[in-house]
Design brief:
mainly beta, 5-stranded mixed β-sheet, 5% helix, single chain, 638 residues, 31% strand
Length: 638
């Protein structure tokens, strides 16, 4: 049966590939060919069978457990769904969830130091998704995916490794990457999964031939001597790590022949004294010729990042006011609209003064780019008066929040880009609160964009980070992602060493003997703490915003406070915005025009992944979400 299904699938895919009429930027309306649906990363589906009028009638159609947790978004081509599942990649019938083929990853090389003949180490596919290359008249379509430092190519119809790609369908790319290969014509582009160590591995973006696996180019994300931008580092460019595309994919402008890569912050995250300057191309959108890797333009969203703002996604490609643009939002929740022909702001951006800190030897950039038209989509400042009251949450929570404020000696905040100040050993607490915190703002879920209206939709969180910068008292790591850094300073707080503490407290107000919170926690500043936001990319105007997610443990009438994670939404021609992303085990649909919630379903686990929609071979439209490592699909009828 599985062989018969594969033969049928092969015939269908070969016909699709041989016509050459289906361009990567003009895909069939029922397909979802990248983790963001299309090359432009819009996450917009033209399907409208499910719409405002009938979405309330959605019921579960089928589900498929992965046997492992991931946050992958499936892709669908002509009714066949492809998705990673632990050490497997599977192809499913989009109407039934039945397996069409299964590929199991072979073991990798033996661990270092083991004897000859030792068993290879088990490997898993990327937890973010897979990619599709449509092939051509002589070459069948392929599924490409990452597994650590290996890229695999499988025949899309059979799941068999492609013999002509590297060594039996596998190539070693060097530095690992955890996202999905970005496909631009016959080129597969990947980022780099570097840590925050300094010195460390370079975070360069690389490209490979989809047919053979041959390396085509590599772009130096830290500007090297003799190239524009090197002067923004002092001598800090040497051996500099970070500055990597850890984003799960990048948008492609096939008409201009460019890929726009989002590059994160330089390593280490919270100390930049050895890299004085703006640090190009850190925290930047960089347009490259996707065939050659040639630099075209860049736009830097943060100068000299010492907050771990990163650039979790590049954004979505749109045409607004007669111009091709990219709408981009990062963890700061600042909404940039950039002309993708020139790299210049389409909507105005000003360089505005920001506060300076006092960490010895640190460099503080005097200004940061701030959009003029659109205010920040998340909270960026607070005072003592913004602490929750008993009426906002519970008396116990409010009291615990005020106790935390007092314990920290209060929190310094002078608005967006307030730095972490220096605390000398033995000195009283001197705490900063950073808003938004380490997860945003808008994180890896990124935006969804309706190209017919120019409206962009995001899940904007209101998180925080608290503490100070101190001289490191030990050679041991302060953070899991900076486990061998030689930096002299790092982050800490009244709660201990490390950068990940926030201004939040248990709703119960109770802690155990080790100081661990008892029961669910909530932020200590007034809600909402997460919102679904719609922004008009042609004007920068916020069209609407609504709280996203509930906290069920709060009293009745206080629960709709926003409780979202890092994932994002999807928008459809049916006038709907679908979003999981919340920490309340729910999947929702909103009216794209008004923000009114139209549908909600309870899940067995949180849906910390982006939703998608597609048409099965039966002609039926489905909506799918990955919730806790299970794909769940919904349709209007069984």
């Amino acid at each position: 049966m599985r062989v018969a299904r594969s033969l049928g699938l092969a015939a269908t895919l070969l016909i699709a590939a041989s016509t050459a009429a289906i361009a990567q930027d003009a895909i069939p309306e029922g397909d979802w060919r990248t983790i963001n649906r299309d090359a432009k990363a819009t996450r917009y589906s033209p399907l409208a069978d499910i719409n405002r009028d009938n979405v309330a009638q959605l019921t579960q159609a089928w589900s498929y457990p992965f046997r492992s947790f991931n946050t992958a978004v499936p892709i669908v081509v002509d009714g066949t769904m492809y998705i990673p599942a632990g050490n497997r990649v599977v192809a499913l019938d989009g109407d039934t969830g039945q397996e069409r083929w299964v590929f199991t990853l072979p073991p990798g090389p033996p661990a270092r130091g083991t004897s000859s003949g030792a068993a290879g180490q088990p490997r898993n596919a990327s937890t973010r998704g897979v990619s599709y290359w449509p092939g051509d008249a002589s070459t069948p379509p392929r599924i490409l995916f990452m597994a650590g430092s290996s890229m695999f190519a499988l025949d899309a119809a059979t799941g068999q490794p492609v013999a002509g790609f590297g060594n039996n369908g596998e190539i070693d790319v060097g530095i690992a990457y955890g996202g999905t290969p970005t496909i631009a014509e016959d080129v597969a582009i990947i980022g780099a999964a570097t840590l925050e160590n300094q010195p460390g591995d370079p975070g360069n973006t690389r490209a490979f031939d989809v047919r053979t696996g041959r390396k085509l180019w590599e772009f130096s994300s830290v500007a090297q001597p003799g190239t524009p931008g090197n002067e923004t580092w002092g001598n800090g460019w040497k051996g500099r790590s970070g500055t990597n595309m850890w984003a799960f994919s990048a948008p492609v402008d096939l008409e201009q022949g460019i890929v726009i890569i989002p590059l994160g912050s330089p390593a280490p995250n919270y100390w930049g004294g050895e890299r004085p300057g703006a640090n190009l191309f850190g925290n930047s959108l960089v347009a490259l010729d996707y065939k050659t890797g040639e630099y075209k333009w860049h736009f830097q969203t943060v100068h000299h990042d010492i907050w771990d703002v990163d650039q979790p996604t590049a954004g979505a490609l749109l045409e607004v006011n007669g111009r091709p643009v990219i709408a981009s939002i990062n963890k700061t929740s600042l909404f940039f609209v950039i002309d993708r022909e020139t790299g210049e702001p389409h909507l105005p951006v000003e360089e505005r003064p920001v506060p300076a800190g006092d960490v010895p030897g640190e460099y503080y950039h005097p200004t940061q780019p701030i959009p003029v038209k659109t205010p920040p989509l998340s909270r960026v400042s607070m005072t003592y008066d913004d602490i929750v009251d008993p009426e906002d949450t519970t008396p116990e929570h409010a009291a615990a929040c005020r106790a935390m404020w007092d314990k920290a000696g209060g929190y310094l905040n002078y608005g967006i880009y307030t730095p972490f100040f220096f605390k000398a050993a033995g000195a009283p607490p001197r705490s900063t609160i950073q808003l938004p915190g380490g997860t945003g703002g808008v994180n890896w879920g990124g935006p969804a964009a309706d190209p017919t209206t120019g409206i962009v939709y995001v899940n904007a969180q209101d998180t925080s980070l608290v503490g100070w910068v101190e001289r490191k008292e030990t050679t041991e790591s302060y953070s899991f992602d900076a486990n061998s850094s030689d930096q002299p300073y790092d982050r800490a707080s009244v709660d201990g060493k490390g950068p990940f503490f926030s201004f939040s407290a248990p709703l119960s107000g109770q802690y155990d003997e080790q100081g661990r919170p008892q029961g669910p926690q909530a932020p200590c500043y007034k809600p909402p703490w997460g919102e679904l936001v719609a922004v008009d990319a042609s004007t920068g105007e916020i069209k609407w915003s609504v709280p996203l997610g509930v906290i069920d443990e709060l009293p009745e009438g206080k629960r709709l406070v926003g409780n979202s994670g890092s994932a994002g939404p999807t928008v459809t021609a049916g006038g709907l915005v679908f979003v999981g992303a919340t920490n309340d085990r729910r999947f929702r649909a909103f009216d794209a025009a008004t923000g009114q919630q139209l549908w909600e379903t309870q899940l067995a686990a949180n849906a910390n992944a982006n939703p998608m929609t597609y048409r099965g071979r039966s002609g039926k439209q489905y909506v799918a979400i990955n919730a806790g490592g299970t794909i769940i699909t919904y349709s209007l009828s069984r």
